[in-house]
């Protein structure tokens, strides 16, 4: 199953490249690359959430005034006649593994930490908050998002090669070879980096954190380069824009 899903990730990436070339010819490689890198940011962000079953502290209940505890139950705490309602545990995540959840789900409740007869000062904690967060990380949703990401990268491959004759018309062969070599190095180095990230962090989704960071860097870098090229080609444009804005 793992091998099948891996092939489902890489196969569309190669097949859809022709469609990416058509899109690049029609809308321009620069526009397509903006869409590809933006889509990579969104999908990597969705994929980096690991499967989790976390218990943590939540919002507690402090005393509004000093006094003596007169009643304690799972639903409320009373201090000299003043009642503090508590959020009760519902056990709605008891069968969470058997149910389908697309997004992380959580349950919050409060548990008393005082007893009847205790002397309480103002702002002293009466009940401790509890939070339970569960994320199923459904394998089919994960696989679908990963396959979609692979398809987007296939479109991006075509957009990258579309840039070559536009920006390097006299060195298409050399630049194309360099792009191919860098792409091969990426395919060789990234799995090794993924392994080290998994070892260092203990998170299987750490590879998507790397993809998110790389995509953000590439998007910002590309935008800055395009801005510099635009300013160099039409230096008066930015000046006129500033004057119009003022």
TrEMBL record:
Classification of source organism: Bacteria, Pseudomonadati, Bacteroidota, Cytophagia, Cytophagales
Protein's recorded name: MFS transporter, NNP family, nitrate/nitrite transporter
InterPro entries on file: MFS (IPR011701), MFS_trans_sf (IPR036259)
Transmembrane intervals: 32-49, 139-160, 172-197, 203-222
Organism: Reichenbachiella agariperforans
Pfam families (UniProt xref): MFS_1
SUPFAM superfamilies attached to this UniProt entry: MFS general substrate transporter
Any one GO MF annotation of this record: transmembrane transporter activity
Keyword flag Membrane: yes
């Amino acid at each position: 199953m793992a091998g099948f899903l891996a092939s489902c990730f890489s196969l569309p990436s190669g097949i859809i490249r022709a469609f990416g070339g058509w899109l690049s010819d029609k809308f321009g490689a620069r526009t397509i690359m903006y869409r590809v890198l933006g889509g990579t940011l969104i999908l990597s962000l969705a994929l980096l959430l690991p499967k989790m079953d976390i218990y943590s502290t939540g919002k507690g209940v402090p005393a509004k005034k000093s006094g003596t505890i007169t009643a304690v139950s799972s639903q409320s705490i009373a201090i000299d006649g003043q009642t503090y309602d508590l959020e009760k545990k519902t056990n709605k995540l008891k069968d969470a593994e058997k149910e389908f959840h697309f997004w992380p789900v959580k349950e919050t409740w409060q548990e008393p930490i005082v007893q009847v007869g205790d002397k309480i000062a103002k702002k002293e904690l009466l009940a401790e908050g509890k939070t339970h967060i569960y994320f199923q990380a459904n394998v089919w949703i994960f696989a679908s998002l990963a396959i979609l990401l692979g398809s987007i990268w296939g479109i991006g491959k075509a957009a990258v090669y579309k840039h070559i004759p536009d920006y390097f018309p006299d060195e298409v062969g050399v630049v194309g070879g360099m792009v191919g070599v860098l792409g091969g190095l990426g395919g060789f180095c990234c799995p090794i980096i993924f392994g080290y990230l998994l070892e260092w962090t203990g998170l299987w989704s750490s590879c998507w954190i790397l993809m998110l960071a790389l995509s953000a860097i590439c998007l910002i870098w590309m935008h800055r380069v395009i801005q510099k090229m635009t300013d160099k080609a039409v230096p008066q444009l930015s000046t006129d824009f500033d004057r119009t804005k003022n």
